[in-house]
Structures are given as structure tokens and as C-alpha cells.
Design brief:
Strand content: 25-35%
Structural class: alpha+beta
Helix content: 40-55%
Shape: globular
Distance between the termini: 34 Å
Number of strands: 7
């Protein structure tokens, strides 16, 4: 398949997932890929959520589309490995959303997909990580000192494969 055909098939699957999600949650409107910013704990934060749904009951839900090789249990491992729980907390804070749903779409045909919502403990872990990152960034800004690479000469060896 051509790259454009792959992208199209993933897009169609993601649209199917978004349509089902919107129906299931009672969405009345949505905002797609809009840049957002706010002040949080003295630090400016920003992001561009994939989609923010306003619900019939006045609440909000944020959804994020992720491509994956396997939308089943391996995706749950990805959520931990790639700190998706931090992203969920960040976007919930940024948008004022009450809920966050990941839409995992497989990259290969037939582009199966699944919807995932983190439990409270996972969201709390993401929020704690977010608070820590924001505090560190605030301190770095205040002191104009950012962690980086060591500034001394380092002796290194080539990797074993070389």
C-alpha cells in the first residue's frame, strides 16, 4: 500500500471510533486540534488536544488518537512506557475536562481500534508527574538554569555492535 492509502485507512478507522465515542458520551459539540494555553501553578502550559467534546450534561471529555501496532493489551503497556497518563492529566487540566479517552488505532489493515479510559489511580499518577514537571520548569525559569548535558569532557566507548 502507498503511504497515502495507509493514512487514509487509519483516518477512516479513527473517524469511526470518534463517531461512536461522540454518540456514546452524548456529545453536543466538539473542538478539534485547537491550540490552548493557561496558567497552572505559576507556569504557562499549552497543548493542542486532538478533540474536546462538550457533553449534554455540561461536562467535557478530551480524546486523543494514537496509532499502534496492536490496540489490545500491548497498547496498555504503551500507555505506561510513553507516559500517556501524563498527557491525559495535562490535557484534562488544560481543557477543564472531566474525562480523557485514548483511541488506539492499529496502523495495519483492517485498522482495528479500541477506546481506553484510565482509572483514577493512573490519572492521579499523571497529575503528580505533571505537578513535578511544572514545578521543576518554574524553578528553572526562576533561576535561569536548566538541566542539560554534562559540560565536562566525557570518555565514552563505542556500542558493542560497532
Amino acid at each position: 500500500l502507498k503511504e497515502s492509502e495507509i493514512v487514509t485507512s487509519i483516518s477512516i478507522a479513527a473517524r469511526d471510533a470518534l463517531d461512536k465515542l461522540a454518540k456514546d458520551i452524548g456529545a453536543v459539540s466538539s473542538l478539534c486540534e485547537q491550540p490552548m494555553a493557561k496558567r497552572y501553578n505559576g507556569v504557562d502550559i499549552k497543548g493542542r488536544p486532538d478533540i474536546v467534546f462538550d457533553l449534554k450534561d455540561g461536562r467535557r471529555l478530551v480524546a486523543d488518537v494514537k496509532t499502534t501496532t496492536d490496540a489490545g493489551k500491548p497498547f496498555i503497556k504503551d500507555m505506561a512506557n510513553y507516559l500517556y497518563f501524563l498527557q491525559a492529566a495535562w490535557y484534562m487540566e488544560l481543557t477543564g475536562a472531566d474525562r480523557f479517552v485514548f483511541i488506539a488505532v492499529e496502523k495495519e489493515a483492517p485498522n482495528e481500534w479500541a477506546l481506553y479510559e484510565l482509572d483514577e489511580a493512573s490519572l492521579a499518577k499523571g497529575k503528580a508527574l505533571m505537578d513535578s514537571a511544572v514545578a521543576l520548569f518554574g524553578q528553572c525559569n526562576a533561576f535561569k538554569s536548566f538541566p542539560g548535558y554534562p559540560k565536562d569532557i566525557q570518555t565514552v566507548s563505542l556500542p558493542a555492535w560497532a
